[in-house]
């Protein structure tokens, strides 16, 4: 009889007993409220030149679905039919159904607009607004009356995340927002860029001052017990994560024990 892995619970993914959250590979999920605790990395990548390659879908298909623009929702707010084990956009097979849904919503917009225009009691302003918003709904599918501003914001956020990652040496632009949301306040960071830059500064400081460092394949972990600062990097120095360990979160008796439990060979400085 096989053994039961108690660390994996919701949809077979890793459960964090210390926080009560489920780690779905790209971000953490709170099953009590049915939402992720940070934004969808794909949401921040909208507008990036690599979006369609990274997520195997056309950008317009993604924007057609209003739920895809809800960056905290789990499985398009339909967990009965879908699951999201990656913590990012749901599989592309769903896109076809979403297109049909959008067509239905657009037809309803036309029907509603026709009723307003033919209503003898409707004012000229109401008729003009209804007709104009329907045209926008066709031009920018996915949210009907409110998509224009949302699409502009999403494109801007995606480009910013990619640019910040390149400028500050953050390994994966899709994870930056999640890490900043959870750990930025540990360092008094006012922005994701400031947080990512602090992580790089710590890495450079570790190289200069010979801070305790463990090497595990392509992963380099550094811990400064004096400031209680922990960073994980690629072998080339790009940041994977950066935070201040907390026994209430990691479950070890002390932060020193937490550091000892980290994988890797201690580097001679």
Model description:
β2 and β3 form a beta hairpin. The chain folds into two domains: 1-168, no CATH class; 171-269, Nuclear Transport Factor 2, Chain: A, CATH 3.10.450. The chain has ten helices and nine strands. The chain is an alpha+beta fold. The chain is globular. The strands form two sheets. Strands 8-7-6-5-9 form a five-stranded antiparallel β-sheet. A four-stranded antiparallel β-sheet has the order 1-2-3-4, with no helix packed on it. The chain starts with 13 loop residues before the first strand and ends with a strand. 44% of the residues lie in helices and 13% in strands.
In short:
44% of the residues lie in helices and 13% in strands. It is an alpha+beta fold.
Give short descriptive properties of this protein.
globular; 2 domains; 13% strand; 10 helices; five-stranded antiparallel beta sheet; single chain; alpha+beta; 269 residues
List the helices and strands and how they pair.
Elements: E1 14-16, E2 21-23, E3 28-30, E4 35-36, H1 41-45, H2 51-55, H3 59-63, H4 93-118, H5 124-139, H6 147-168, H7 173-183, H8 192-209, E5 213-216, E6 219-224, E7 229-234, E8 239-243, H9 247-250, H10 255-260, E9 265-266
Antiparallel strand pairs: 1-2, 2-3, 3-4, 5-6, 5-9, 6-7, 7-8
Q: How are helices and strands ordered from N to C?
A: EEEEHHHHHHHHEEEEHHE
Number of helices, where a helix is a run of at least 4 consecutive DSSP H or I residues: 10
Distance from first to last alpha carbon: 47 Å
Class by alpha and beta content: alpha+beta
As a percent range, the share of strand residues is 5-15%
The overall pLDDT average reads 73
The helicity comes to 40-55%
Quaternary status: single chain
Computed CA radius of gyration, to the nearest angstrom? 23 Å
Q: How many beta-strand runs?
A: 9
Shape: globular
Question: Any low-confidence stretches, pLDDT <50, length ≥5?
Answer: 91-95, 138-156
Strand order of the largest sheet: 8-7-6-5-9
- List the domain count as a whole number: 2
What can be said about the biggest beta sheet?
Answer: 5 strands, antiparallel
């Amino acid at each position: 009889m096989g053994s039961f892995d108690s660390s994996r619970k919701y949809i077979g993914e890793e459960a964090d007993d210390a926080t009560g959250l489920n780690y779905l590979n790209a971000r953490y999920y709170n099953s009590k409220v049915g939402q992720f605790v940070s934004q969808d990395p794909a949401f921040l990548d909208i507008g990036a030149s690599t979006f369609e390659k990274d997520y195997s879908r056309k950008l317009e298909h993604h924007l057609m679905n209003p739920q895809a623009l809800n960056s905290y929702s789990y499985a398009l707010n339909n967990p009965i039919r879908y699951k999201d084990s990656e913590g990012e956009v749901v599989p592309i097979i769903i896109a076809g159904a979403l297109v049909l849904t959008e067509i239905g919503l657009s037809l309803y917009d036309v029907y509603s607009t026709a009723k307003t225009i033919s209503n003898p009691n409707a004012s000229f302003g109401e008729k003009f607004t209804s007709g104009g918003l329907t045209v926008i709904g066709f031009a920018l599918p996915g949210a009907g009356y409110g998509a224009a501003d949302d699409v502009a914001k999403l494109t801007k956020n995606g480009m910013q995340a990619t640019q910040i990652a390149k400028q500050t040496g953050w390994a994966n632009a899709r994870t930056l927002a999640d890490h900043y949301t959870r750990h930025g306040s540990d360092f008094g960071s006012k922005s994701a860029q400031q947080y990512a830059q602090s992580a790089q500064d710590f890495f450079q400081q570790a190289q200069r001052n010979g801070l305790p460092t463990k090497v595990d394949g392509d992963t380099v972990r550094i811990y400064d017990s004096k400031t209680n600062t922990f960073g994980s990097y690629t072998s080339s120095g790009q940041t994977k994560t950066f935070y201040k360990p907390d026994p209430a979160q990691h479950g070890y008796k002390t932060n020193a024990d937490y550091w000892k439990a980290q994988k890797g060979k201690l580097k001679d400085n």
